[in-house]
Specification:
alpha+beta
Length: 186
């Protein structure tokens, strides 16, 4: 079986995120992938340079971090279950994550300058704006053009502290993906 309910929204959000990051201060990322799992994405490929002449850096991803039934979007939980396929909507929580290389203490123990820290802060702020743009400007109807327009709301953007020369943040998006009916119930 193929997931035709949730995964199309995650794929569409990933496309929108990768496109938005290309116009950010940090530019395109080295890797922009769908990732499995619900935990915070590890900083495992936060390359400081990649692509033609080092024109890209960092990593970005979208994960499906939660899927739950809802009697009233976006609230989690079901008031009643009458065994009818269309009485409950399913909500997908998608999480965008972006990490970039940041300045750290050098090999001589000298901390980054204020200009370097300012540059890093501006780059991460630009990535936060790119995530907000990916949410707001994405054509959400594309994954399911035959369905009615879905309800989609943004969640919180949360910064991730520097570790190993990388820093960034993540943002959630809640998507009403609709009812799930067995093929013989539609």
């Amino acid at each position: 079986m193929t997931d035709t309910l949730v995964l199309p929204y995650a794929e569409r959000l990933l496309d929108c995120l990768c496109d938005a990051l290309a116009d950010s201060l940090g530019g395109p990322v080295c890797r922009c992938c769908l990732r499995p799992g619900a935990h915070l994405v590890p900083m495992d490929s936060c390359y400081c340079e990649c692509g033609a002449a080092g024109s890209a850096n960092g990593q970005a991803s979208v994960q499906v971090t939660n899927v739950y039934p809802s009697s009233k979007f976006p609230r989690s939980g079901v008031d009643e279950w009458d065994d009818a396929c269309n009485t409950v909507t399913w909500v997908a929580e998608l999480t965008m994550t972006v990490y970039r290389c940041v300045h750290t203490v050098d090999e001589k123990g000298v901390p980054p300058t204020c200009d370097q820290l300012d540059s890093d802060a501006r780059k991460i702020a630009s990535d936060r704006f790119a995530m907000m743009s990916a949410f707001a400007c994405c054509d959400w109807r594309r994954p399911a053009p035959t369905r009615e327009e879905r309800r989609i709301i943004p969640g919180t953007w949360t910064p991730v502290a520097p570790a190993g020369g990388c820093a960034g943040g993540f943002m959630t998006v809640l998507v009403d993906v609709g009812a799930f009916c067995c093929p013989d119930e539609e």
